[in-house]
Write a structure and sequence with these properties.
heterodimer, A: alpha/beta, 9-stranded parallel β-sheet, about 15% strand, B: alpha/beta, 4-stranded antiparallel β-sheet, 17 helices
Chain lengths: ~280, ~425
Amino acid sequence: MAEMRRPLTRIDRVFAELAARNCAAFITFVTAGDPDLATSARILDGLPDAGADLIELGMPFTDPMADGPAIQAASLRALKAGTTLKLTLDLVRLFRIKNDSTPIVLMGYYNPIYSYGVERFIADALQVGVDGLIVVDLPPEEDNELCLPVLKAGLSFVRLATPTTDDRRLKRVLTNTSGFVYYVSITGITGAASANPAIVAREVARLRRQTDLPIAVGFGVRTADQAAAVARVADATVIGSALVARVAEGLDSSGAPRPHLIGDMLGFVRELADSVHRARL
Amino acid sequence: MATAKTRVSARRTAKKKVKRGATTPPRNTFRSGPDENGHFGIYGGRFVAETLMPLVLELEQAYSAAKADPKFHAAMEYYFKDYIGRPSPLYLAQRLTDHCGGAKIYFKRDELNHTGAHKINNCIGQILLAKRMGKRRIIAETGAGQHGVATATVAALFDLPCVVYMGETDIERQQPNVFRMKLLGAEVRPVSSGSRTLKDAMNEALRDWVTNVKDTFYIIGTVAGPHPYPMMVRDFQSVIGREAREQMLEHERRLPNTVIACIGGGSNAMGLFYPFLDDAEVKMVGVEAAGHGIESGHHAASLSAGRPGVLHGNRTYLLQDEDGQIKEAHSISAGLDYPGIGPEHSWLHDAGRVSYVSATDNEALDAFQLCSKMEGIIPALEPSHALAHVFRIAGKLPKDHIILVNLCGRGDKDIFTVAKALGLKL
C-alpha cells in the first residue's frame, strides 16, 4: 500500500539541513513572557541569529511539577507579567512576521491547554505558526486528550523518553511521536543534575535502534562543554534552565530588566550554539 | 450484522449471566470505578511525566497483586487492630443531639486512632505495599501535618528513612506536628514555592519522586494523584465506612439517614462514603472549606466554585483562573487547604450521588468550641467543618433521623491556630 507522504515541516527541514552538514542542532528553551512580554518578544526575535536552530517556548504554569527552581521562577515571573496562553500564541504570531523558517515548539503542562479548549488551541496554534508541542504531563496513556487531535491537525507531538522508559515501553512512547524525540538525560527535574556523556551516548544508541526520528537530549545540560559532548552523540542539544537563569541575573532588584539583559542572554546563546555547531569538527 | 448462530449464542450467554446474577444481582452501582485506566467518568487518569509513568504502572501491578493476597490483608488487619486500635467506636453524641433538638448525631471516632486521625489507615496500607515492593525510602506531602505524622510513624515502625514535604505556611501554623515528625525520625523539608501550602508540598514530593525513581515509595495522603492512588487510598480508608455501617446496624438495627464528612482531598469522606454508596436510602454530604466565604474568593471549595482541570496526575474539579492557572486555596484548616479534590468525588458530584456543601472558617471555629464544651471531645478543625453542617441541619430534622459524621481527627494540633483566631495568647 502506498504511504501518504506528508509535506516536510519546518522541523524536518532544520534537522535535514543540519544532518547534511554533519552538524547537531541547538535547541533553546525560554519561557514565554519572561521577564515581561516585550522583552520576551525581543529575546525570541534574536534567538535564530544567535544560533538557535529550534525554539522551545515554555507556556508558563503555576505548578510546573517537572521543573527545577530556575524554570519555576521563570514561569512565575511570566505569570506575574500577565502572560496567558493567548498572549503566548501572540508572541509566536509576532515572531513569524519576521521569521518563517525557525521551528517553534510550545512546551508546558496540560491544564492551561485544557482550559483554553483543545480544538480552539490547536486551530490557533496552527494559525500563528506553531510547529509542535511538548506536554510534560501527557504520557501515551492519555493520547486521546491532545496527542491524537494534534497529529491529525498536522502539528508535531514531541514526546519525552526517559531513563525509566524501558525498551518495551519505548515502542509505545515512540508510536505517536513526531518531529523529534526528546531524551531526558537524567531522572529528575529540569536544571538539576548533570548528564553523564557516556550514559547519554548509550541511551541515544538505544533510542536509535527503535526510531529514525532525530533525537534531542536535554534536562541535564548547562555548559558549552556539556552541550558539545551531547552534540557529538545526539541530533540536538537542548538548553533551558541555564538560559532562563541568565534572564533572572539580568533583572534589577525591582524585577525590571536591566538594559544589557537581552545582549548578555543572546551572547550566551551564541557561545553555546558555537560549541554545539563545532562539536563534530 | 449478527448471524443466526451468533444471536443464539449471545442469548445463551445472556441467560447464563442472569443465572449467575441470582447470587450477586446485577444492578447499577456507584462502586465499580475506576476503569482500567483509572477513570471515574471523565475524572482521574494518569497525567504524569514519562519518568514517573513506569513507576505508576509498577505500583498498580503491585497493588493488584497485594489486593489478591490474603497475607497482605491479614497484615493490614493485624496493624489496624493492635497498632491503630481499630475498630474505632461509633458514639452517640447525646448532649449535642439534645442541644440541637432534632436528629440523632453519631460520631465515627477516627480521632481515637493512633496518631489522632484517619490518615494512619492509609499509611499502614501503603507502607506494607512499599515493603512488598522492596522500596527503601519513603516520601510524603503534608498539609495539616496529620498525614506527615502518620507517614513518619509507619516509617519509624518499619525502619525506613522518611522525608516529608510541607509548605512553609503550614509549618508555621502546625508547629506541634512538625516537632512530632522530627521526634519520629523523619526529615521535614520546608517548601517555599507557590502558596507554600499543601499543593506546593505535593509538587515538591513529585519532584523528589521523579529524581529518586529507583528506591523511593511516595505515600500520597489523600484520594488524589495518578491512578492507582485515588482507588488505593479509598480502599485503605474504606475500613471507616465498613465499620461504621456494621456498628450502626448493631446500635440502631438500620442504616443512617445522612452521612457527613469534611473534604480537602477527600480521603476520610471517600473512606466513610464508599461502603454506603449503593445504599440508595442513605443521603451523603461532603463539606468543603469555605474559608472567608465562597464570595470572598478566599476558600478551598473546589466543587462549589471550581471547574474541571488537570493537576497532580488527575483530572478533577480545581480552583483555577480563566487561563487554567491554579489558584491558591484558603482555609483556617491546613488539612483542607487544597485547590483540588479527589477525582471520585468529582464524579459523585456530577452523578448527584453525594451533595457537596461548604462551611466557613468561622462556622468551623464555632463548631470546634461547641463540640469541645458539650461532648468533651476537641475535634480537629477539619471535621469541625463537617460538624458545622451537622449543627446547621440537625435541629430541623425529626428525632428519628440518624446522622453519622466522621470525626476524622482530634484537635490537639489546632489549639494554637484556634487561640490565635479567638484573639487569645497561649
